[in-house]
Design a protein that fits this description.
By secondary structure, the chain is an alpha/beta fold. Helices cover about 35% and strands about 20% of the residues. The longest helix has 19 residues, at about 235-255. The protein is globular and about 80 Å long. It binds 6-O-phosphono-beta-D-glucopyranose (BG6).
Length: about 500
């Protein structure tokens, strides 16, 4: 999170020819390259099962950048950093060859023994790859260097598998070497949530059960499952969005003020929040899947009609639930969560609904006085804040009107926001774990989900293009009190 250039190292990407690498990792590394944030001698080694030469991998990367709208001389200097090696199996011989390749790169580019391994792999490949690295000693930092491991989501499918994966990782790597990615933590506005809370004393003094009536987190996407049914149907909204991204947002909203702005202090406070959340009971959650409907005037098929979705699927594309953080700060304040695909718009938003004025003078005088002040933190698509409160309309008779006070990132800081992966890759290369998830956090968040996994509520249906099924309406702040915040 600081502005220095990352130290020279070799970044090894497992799954380098996969979708994430093509769409996110290579463009993010390119942007860091152009911004001068990568050491000039840093090298990137792509690894995957496919046979390819270095040059073919450079062509693959150039095409990926091209698709991301990136061309020109910088693209040439960037792809010159790229190398490739195929590991068709997880046999130890392959990892020995990998070690030799890393050593020869280090000699050729006079690099210190700094290694970052990025696992952009299907979950079943995590454990064999980690074990392979360990068996040939690539887990151990050499004298004067460092070794880091970046692991993509999903980290386990439930409490048991997450614990087992943590055990495998810890057999070979120390927690201080591990960077579990949750790309939501790399979003600028998510980071700003911490700054907003911790740099402005008035916010903290209202950020508690005395002042806050309820919190609502909405993560809506207008896209459907697209071509990802093979993955998504085994996952659903609970595993795909709630256990990771949304639980991370909950921790940042609910955590206590840390003792410093350091990775350890922040992650310690986040873990305390997770430990204070009781497992969510099936009666406090609604699962549903989208049926056919209309988005932006276009008819779209229902989930069961999407390519690759089994006809008897019981997977949810929407999850609405209520949870409570049983801490002194938040006891009794409901946290309402809703996330779904095929909603009317892409929107990620945290709404903090404050308690209304204790005495309602103006109502007694015949004015309409709205009940709650709502602070909305919009994470996407239009990053910013808005706070809605009552003012007097000029003139007579006395009349109140609800107006927003708004701050839009785009208005104040025109230009593109850094992409999450750009931020997170750099943090991993710089050894800053603040925006990565600790192993204990993952386990606690699966613990919170356990009853929903063991006894999932039945799957209801909602028409595509709506904010979810009516059966979930009681798990939300009434729309009339959100001041159109979700819908404008
Ligand atoms: C991913 C999920 O982790 O996050 C996807 O697997 C989802 O299903 C995506 O679409 C949403 O990310 P963002 O940054 O577009 O909100």
């Amino acid at each position: 999170m600081d502005a220095t250039t990352a130290e020279p190292s070799v970044l090894t990407i497992f799954g380098a020819t996969g979708d994430l690498s093509r769409r996110k990792l290579l463009p993010a590394l390119y942007r860091n390259h152009v911004a001068g944030r990568l050491a000039p001698s840093m090298q990137i080694l792509g690894v995957s099962r496919r046979q390819m030469s270095d040059d073919e991998f450079r062509v693959f990367a150039t095409e990926a950048l091209d698709k991301a709208g990136i061309t020109g001389p910088d693209a040439h200097s960037f792809v010159a950093r790229l190398h490739y090696t195929a590991t068709p199996t997880s046999h130890i011989e392959e990892f020995r060859k990998l070690r030799e390749r890393l050593e020869s790169l280090r000699r050729a580019y006079q690099l210190p023994p700094n290694n970052c391994f990025y696992l952009s792999l299907p979950p079943r490949a995590f454990a064999p790859t980690i074990a392979g690295l360990g068996q040939v000693g690539l887990n151990e930092p050499a004298t004067g260097g460092w070794t880091r491991l970046v692991v993509e989501k999903p980290f386990g499918r439930d409490l048991q598998t997450a614990q087992a994966l943590n055990d495998t990782v810890h057999e070979f790597f120390d927690e201080s070497q591990i960077y579990r990615i949750d790309h939501y933590l790399g979003k600028e506005t998510v980071q700003n949530l911490l700054v907003f809370r911790l740099a402005n004393a008035f916010v903290e003094s209202s950020w508690n059960r005395e002042r806050v009536d309820s919190v609502q987190i909405t993560v809506g996407e207008s896209l459907g499952v697209g071509t990802r049914a093979g993955y998504y149907d085994h996952s659903g909204a609970l595993r795909d969005m709630f256990q990771n991204h949304i639980m991370q947002l909950v921790t940042l909203v609910a955590m206590e003020v840390p003792s410093s702005f350091s990775a350890d202090a922040i992650r310690y406070e986040k873990l305390k929040v997770l430990k204070s959340i009781a497992p969510i009971l099936p009666g406090d959650a609604v699962r549903a899947r989208y049926g056919p409907g209309t988005i932006d005037g276009q008819s779209v098929p229902g989930y069961l009609d999407e390519d690759g979705v089994p006809a008897d699927s019981q997977t949810e594309t929407f999850l609405g639930l209520r949870l409570g953080v049983e801490s002194w700060r938040w006891q009794g304040v409901p946290f309402y969560i809703r996330t779904g695909k095929r909603m009317p718009a892409k929107t990620t938003q945290i709404a903090i609904r404050f308690r209304g004025a204790p005495v309602r003078f103006f109502e007694r005088m015949g004015c309409q006085q709205d009940t709650a002040d709502v602070l909305t933190l919009s994470l996407q698509p239009n990053e910013g804040f808005s706070f809605h409160f009552d003012i007097k309309v000029p003139g007579n008779p006395l009349k109140l009107e609800r107006v927003p006070l708004t701050f839009g990132y785009g208005d104040r800081f025109p230009g593109a926001m850094p992409d999450s992966y750009q931020t997170l890759l750099l943090d991993a290369l710089q050894g800053d774990q603040t925006l990565f998830v600790h192993g204990d956090e993952v386990v606690e968040s699966w613990r919170v989900c356990a009853p929903l996994i063991e006894s999932p509520p039945p799957v209801d249906e909602y028409p595509a293009g709506t904010w979810g099924p009516t059966s979930a309406e009681h798990l939300a702040i009434p729309e009339s009190e959100l001041w159109q915040a979700t819908h404008d």
